[in-house]
Amino acid sequence: MSERLHALIARCAREVAEQQEAPVAVDLAPETRLFGREGLFDSIGLVSLIVMVEQAIEEEFEAVVTLADERAMSQKRSPFLTIGSLADYADRLIRDAT
Amino acid sequence: MTLITGASRGIGEHLSRHYAARGHRVIGCSRSPPERPIEGGTHFEVDVRDEASVRCLFAGIRREHGRLDHLVNNAGVSSMNHSLLTPIQVAQRVIDTNVIGTFLFCREAAKLMRRHRYGRIVNLSTVAVPLKLAGEAIYAASKAAVESLTGILAREFAEFGITVNAVGPAPVDTDLTRSVPGEKLDHLFARLAIPHMGTFEAVANVVDFYLAPESDSVTGQILYLGGP
Question: ipTM value of the model?
């Protein structure tokens, strides 16, 4: 599931970047930072990415998850920091939901 | 594609028929089915306070239609009573339906609308907010919250090509206003520039304006009817 999630998040990230008219030129790896210093997105871009990933998970995994839940907000290290950390967090939520 | 909450009766039912007649694909939802089916429309029984049901409704719309152009947040309940005699359960139900329900639908609709970078959201407020009517503390407070949501969501959603506006009708002849004593209504009308019952058509006229593609720079607005 982990590889599928990485691919799903990378695809969503490229789509959001294109919508923001700032296409991603680099390869997207698990350690690619999504926000903050050297991150791909500003705050609005990150909001769009989270929504798009939730919808894509619903379509591909048939699981309704809320990525930006209280658990995510209360973690010391944000699960939204990199593609890998988001994939790991989504993986856990999908397992809980199914 | 137009979604209308509280579509089984009153203003919501009128708007559903109005937009179905104009060729919109109308999806209505409310806790109970409409007495007469709406031609050209689909109806779902959903409690607007129930997040799981609301998300399920939007997942269905996304799967079936892939888009949503318009949302009219009409579902609402009222409580006409002195605040000293308002049970907390009643206050909670009014806040949950009018504020949380509106927020949930705005949030889920915007997720869908942002895909096409186009959307129109219209929330229902009331003249009871500017008139500060005695006996409507919780109802007016809930609608004041809806107005505040409208203004802030207009800013948050502008990025996605979505406008958010509100209309505050004068009392229209619905189940909601029928529970208000005549003397209270007379007192209310005395404070309006146009001192009589509002009409469904007047509400639809404002919603038409907000939904028009040309209204793309109209957002964060509250328009009251009757001249409070």
Answer: 0.85
